[in-house]
Amino acid sequence: MKNVSAAFLAMLQNNNTLVEADLYTITLQNGAVMYYTSAQQPVTYGGHTFAAAYLDSAPGFARGSTKCAIGLEVDDLEVDILFDQSTIIQGTTPSAFVAAGGLDNAVIQLDKALAPDWSNPVLNGVVNLFTGFVGEAQIEPGKINLTVHNRLKILNTSFPRNYFLPGDNNALFSAASGLSAATYAVNGTVSATGTATSFHSNCTQADGWFALGYVVWKTGANAGLTSLVKTYANASGAFTIVYPLPTVPVSGDTFTAYPGYDRTQATCQTKFNNLANFRGFPYVPTPETLEMGGAGSPPTSVGGMGGAGIGGIGRGGGGQAGRLVQK
Questions:
Q1: Among residues 11, 91, 98, 263, which one has the fewest Cβ atoms lying within 10 Å of its Cβ?
Q2: Which tens digit of pLDDT belongs to each residue from 139-180?
Q3: Alpha-helical runs (H) found in the chain
């Protein structure tokens, strides 16, 4: 059931035709709030002005359908942010804004606004259609596709939170790691025209420093895109990236590179000096499979089985035969 004001209900009952528009309230992680509407002109509601698509450099919006259900059913909403060369979000292009993590975990509230006439819109209330947080963002030419998860998805969390694994449970530059990405950011410039998957630069860090990290392109035809780094070599600042770029980088293109992390204890200590925040368990024994020797001979290890089941232990002449899994 959707709750509406008495004035909103009266508007529905007393008008044969109404115009409609979506209102998007986007709350960023830093607390900043952005207001947009799919209407052809700005709309004022609740003391806020919702910017209209393509007016005043505002982006446009298109979305998938929503539905109402009783219970704990979890839905996702697909939202497309549409833009052109004049569109600006928070002082930068939409592609660069999203690539830099501007919409990571942002909360999007979608409301339906109705009015008798947009020439003199009077909003007597809105109906909330969906509220959730941004889960994935994909950058495409002229469009950013967002997958917005219902807040109930937060309940779909594995417990316990930490797994007893050799590698670090903390992601690099997460809040739990205590490290800031800005501290390790390295500004670089392409030194020679490369290929769709490799390029040379003026970076001088040691071999492997940026491997498993990423590069955010600042200028050139790939500006706003993010590339995952496969390998990095000190010689000529050579980068190899995982996925091909749409346009080959050329000399003079600039980028910001961030180091990678293989989540081992040694890398945490030597590369980031962050052992105090390491949340891995490198000394937990791994499962092993033992062969029980015949005629009283000692057991022989045949390697880890990764949690295989316990085999039968046979009994007969000459001693025990079978397998035993040590956990």
A1: 91
A2: 988 899 999 988 777 776 666 666 788 899 999 999 999 999
A3: 6-14, 94-99, 181-184, 265-270
What is the residue extent of each domain of the chain?
A: 6-155, 175-277, 288-326
Q: How many residues does the chain have?
A: 327
Residue closest to 106 by CA, chosen among 23, 26, 24: 26
Per residue, the 3-state secondary structure of 229-254, as one string, reads EEEEECHHHEEEECCCCCCCCCCCCE
Closest CA to 239 of 185, 172, 190, 272: 190
Q: Which residue has the tokens 């390790």?
A: 184
CA distance 249 to 191: 10
User: Does pLDDT of 221 surpass 60?
Assistant: yes
pLDDT at 321 over 90: no
3-state secondary structure of 169: coil
CA 122 to chain centre: 38
Cα separation, 240 vs 228, whole angstroms:
9
CATH domain 175-277 topology = Thrombin, subunit H (2.40.10)
Specify the pTM: 0.51
How far is the C-alpha of 68 from the C-alpha of 2, rounded, in Å? Answer: 10
Of the candidates 42, 48, 4, 13, the one whose C-alpha atom is nearest the C-alpha of residue 121 is 42
**What is the pLDDT averaged over residues 238-262?**
95
User: Collapsing DSSP states into helix, strand and coil, what is residue 28?
Assistant: coil
What's the whole-number average pLDDT of the chain?
A: 83
Integer CA distances (angstroms), 62 to 52, 66, 315, in order = 13, 13, 70
**Pair 89, 76: CB distance under 8 Å:** no
CB 156 within 8 A of CB 221: no
SS3 175: helix
Q: At 62, is the secondary structure helix, strand, or coil?
A: strand
Question: What CA–CA distance (Å, rounded) separates 147 from 114?
Answer: 25
